[in-house]
Design goal:
39% helix; globular; two-stranded antiparallel sheet; 2 domains; Rossmann fold
Length: 212
């Protein structure tokens, strides 16, 4: 009796499976069991585990005039994103680094590794913001955030040395269109920094993504 019931269920759903010809036939097994195909993306530089990291954010003068807190906000969000995914990672408090930047006008000329050693860090994550805006370039009345940066990792044990890893990261928010009517610039800025921080973090841990 149980075998007949099983055959009846198969016969009932067979036409629905056959209707999804072509690429849909490939996806049918995943759809039946409620699973989507995924793949693992390895970390580009998986060596921040159990390290104390000093995050240093640089931005040009024009950006700092328009967004005076962008260095601190970026460092805090990046630390939060990395802490969520990299086991054992710790940080020099971003506020401590930011306050030092405000006190010392010559901090930009300092060797990053030496700066990290000053704060007792193992590694320095230098984030050089090359773009940060909350408005569309050709339509300044429309809010849409863009953040782009060069990332560099320095080993604090080796002063005046080249970065051990470098890459670039860019994030756009909202990704597909300007912000909806009524959304504030403050909300766009916060969401842009959060999206950027998540993009930065993905460079340093293995993750699983959906296959499109």
């Amino acid at each position: 009796m149980q075998r007949r019931r099983h055959l009846f269920v198969v016969a009932l759903f067979a036409p629905l499976l056959l209707a999804g010809a072509g690429c849909k036939m490939v996806a049918a097994p995943f759809l039946m069991w409620g699973r989507e195909p995924t793949k693992d993306i390895p970390a580009e530089w998986p060596h921040l585990r159990d390290k104390k990291v000093c995050i240093v954010v640089w931005a040009d003068a024009d950006t700092l005039v328009e967004h005076p807190w962008v260095q601190l906000e970026t460092a805090e969000h990046v630390a939060k994103a990395l802490r969520a995914h990299v086991p054992g990672i710790t940080f020099v408090p971003p506020r401590k680094v930011y306050d030092y930047q405000q006190r010392d006008p010559d901090w930009e000329s300092a060797d990053p590794a030496t700066l990290g050693d000053r704060f007792g860090a193992d590694r320095v994550l230098m984030i050089e913001l090359t773009q940060f805006t909350t408005r569309e370039p050709e339509s300044p009345h429309l809010y849409r955030g863009r953040a782009a940066a060069n990332l560099k990792i320095f080993n604090a044990d080796y002063p005046n040395s080249a970065p051990v890893y470098k890459t670039s990261v860019e994030a756009v928010y909202p990704p597909d269109s300007p912000g909806k009517w009524g959304v504030s610039e403050r909300d766009i800025r916060a969401a842009t920094i959060e999206a950027f921080a998540e993009k930065v973090a993905t460079r340093f841990y293995e993750r699983r993504v959906k296959v499109r």
